[in-house]
Amino acid sequence: MAADVLLLNAESGWSRVSVRFLLTTSPSDQENCFNPAPSRSSVASAGEGGEPMDRIDKLRVFAIVARAGSFSAAARQVNLTPSAVSKMINRLEEDVAVALFDRSTKTLSLTVEGSTYLDCVNRVLSDLEETERQLAEQKTVPRGRLRISSSIPIGVRHIQPLIPKFNSQFPDVEIDLNLADNVVDLVEQSIDVAIRVGESQDSSFIARKLCNSRRVVAASPDYIRRFGAPRRPEELVEHECLKFNMKRALNEWPFLIDGAVQSVQLGGKYTANNGETIRHLALSGVGIARLAWFQIGHDVAEGRLVPLLEEFHPNDIQGVYAIFFGHRFVSSRVRSFVDFLIDNLSGERPFLGGRYYRQALGSPGEAAAHAARLALVNGDPR
Length: 382
Prior knowledge:
Helix content is about 35%, strand content about 20%. By secondary structure, the chain is α+β, with helices and mostly antiparallel strands. It has three domains: about 1-140, Arc Repressor Mutant, subunit A; about 145-215 and about 320-345, Periplasmic binding protein-like II (D-Maltodextrin-Binding Protein, domain 2, 3-Layer(aba) Sandwich), CATH 3.40.190; about 215-315 and about 350-375, 3-Layer(aba) Sandwich (D-Maltodextrin-Binding Protein, domain 2). The relative contact order is 0.11. It comes from Neoaquamicrobium microcysteis. One of its GO terms (biological process) is DNA-templated transcription. This is LysR family transcriptional regulator.
C-alpha cells in the first residue's frame, strides 16, 4: 500500500513523497495513534541482512522512542534490542537528513525538527490506523456496544420501541440506551449516538436528520370541559399553563399574531423539570401544555389531547437529528443504527396537529369522536 509522507530535508525543507509500507498491525498494536506498539513480526530488524527497512516501521518506532524517552524503554515495547532500535532511528535520520533526537544529554530528547516531524508522524499513523479499522469493519457485521443518548420523550416514544427491530437485524450489537432531558457531554459520557432536536453547533460532530418536529399547544377534553378553550393566545394568561422549571426558553410560547411572531404572558402555577411530567399533567386535566408533536402526537390522534390555537401557530418547524462524533470513518454499528433510524422515522408527520385541530372545530362529516371534541372546544358540556 502507498501513502504520502512529509519528509524534512535540511536544504529544501518539507516535501511530500509517496512511500510504500506494510500493513501488519494487530489489534494490540492499535492502542492509540501515538503508541502503535509494533511487534517483532511487524517491525523489521535493523540487522537482518541489510535489507531496506520499511518506512512505516521506522515511523512507528520513532513515535515510540519519543514517547518512551530512551532506546532501551522503546526496545522493550517493540521486542527488539536497544541497538536495533538505535539503528532504526539512525536510518530514519539519514532518510530525512536531519537529527531528530538530541543525544548530548543523559536523557533522550527531541530536537526542534524532531518535534515538528513527530506531529506529522502522529497524523500519518493515526490515518493509517483509521484506514485499517475501516477496512476491517467492512468485512464484519456490526458488533459491540452502542451507547445512545436521547431525551426522555423521544427515547420512550420513538427510540425504545424500535430497539427490538434493530436487534433482530443486528443481533451482535449491544444497546446501551440513556434517557435524560438534560444535554450530556457526548465525549465525557462516551456516547456513540445522540438523538437531539436541532443541529449540533460543534463542527467535530456529524448531524443526520431523522425527521421534523413542531410544538403543539394542547389540553385534555376534561380541562376544556371545565375551564373552556382559549380563543386567542392573549387569553392564556387566564389559564393554567404547564411550564418548565429548568429552561426558561421553553416557557416562551410564540404565536403568529397580526402578522408578527410574539410571545404572550402565561398563567399557571405548575412547573416541572421534564416533558413527560408535563404531558401527564396535561392528560390529567391539570392544565394546558406546549409540547413536541413527537411526544403527544399519539395522544392527539387518540383523542386524549386536543390541539389549541393552531391558527396562530408560527410554523416553527425543527429537525430531529442523530449526532455522532465526526471521525473520518464511522463504525459500522453507528452507521447501521443511524441508517436504521432514518428508514424508520423519516415518515413522521408533525403537521398533523393542524388537521386534528380542524377536526376538533367541526368539519362536516367528521367521526363522532371529533364531533365530541368540537362540542368541548365550543363550550358544549354534552
